[in-house]
Amino acid sequence: MRSTFSIALIIVLSVSLLSTKVIAQRPATAIVQPIVFVAKTERLELTGTIESASSVEIFPAVGDVVTNVYFQAGDAIEAGAPLLQLNNRREQVALELAEINLRDAQRRLDRLKTIHSQAAASQQELDAATLTRDLAANRLAQAQVELDEHTVIAPITGIAGLSDVRVGDRITPSTVITTLDDLDHLFVLIRVPEALTTTLSKGQTFNLTTWGDQTTSIVGTVTDLDSRVDPVTRTLKIRLAIDNVNGLLRPGMSLKADHLTQGQRYASIPEAALLWGASGAYLWTLDNESRAQRRNVEVVQRQTGIILVEGDLLPGEQLIVEGVQRLRSNQVITVVEQP
Fold first, then answer.
1. Where do the Multidrug resistance protein MdtA-like C-terminal permuted SH3 domain residues begin and end (predicted)?
2. Entry pTM
């Protein structure tokens, strides 16, 4: 009885091995394509702060009582336009006095020149009169500067910010009158991780969005890169120019930048070529003898229409992309053209 069972078991095993060998030797048809390596893409979310190309805080040169305010918050101000007037009565009187003194000194000098030409005045007297005239001209110029300092002038063209200064207030040189920002030319300052510094260049573009509107994309163009990496944060500062078309962007606002980077390169395969087994993902390649070889792989990233995998693969190897469902190792493959 035991002998009969042993003979039956041997026959079953022999048939099984023979069937496997026959399947392995039976040619299968498949479509192949060379393996191409593609860079893994990584999406990095960065945060930047909007800056104005020209932005200033306005301080008075001197302290005094405010007599006129010529702007309101949100006004478009041209460079050179008056913003605020301080009480300048003393300065006006000083200017008038300086003008009188200059005219008097000039008359004295002219008279001495006439007398000197007639040899009735010495050169020393003429030099002294000339010095007096020059000092009077200098005092007049100084009086004009002191008068001008009581009118606060816009140094740049921009939009006026809020102001707490009112007519009747006494202000000092440390009082902030308002701010001026050029909203037509804005930049975004972003700190980029050190690992990405070699991927950056002037003219490169970023897609930016505001935190309040994730659907509207703003294109930022790299205009400047810092000369060094911050040793504490390990980041590099870059500046992007943006267009404030609708006028809604303001300095100080934060923008989100989605940056795609190219990482390490991996084998790119069609989704249909990837199979799953008990040990994980695998695929089939074609060796030099036109036989199927199973390769275990790990999925790295899924991209549109393809999968990046890591394994014992080389660029240019023949990947079996169709006809993979019933393949066996070392099975002979008949390659057919793609329809």
1. 269-326
2. 0.61
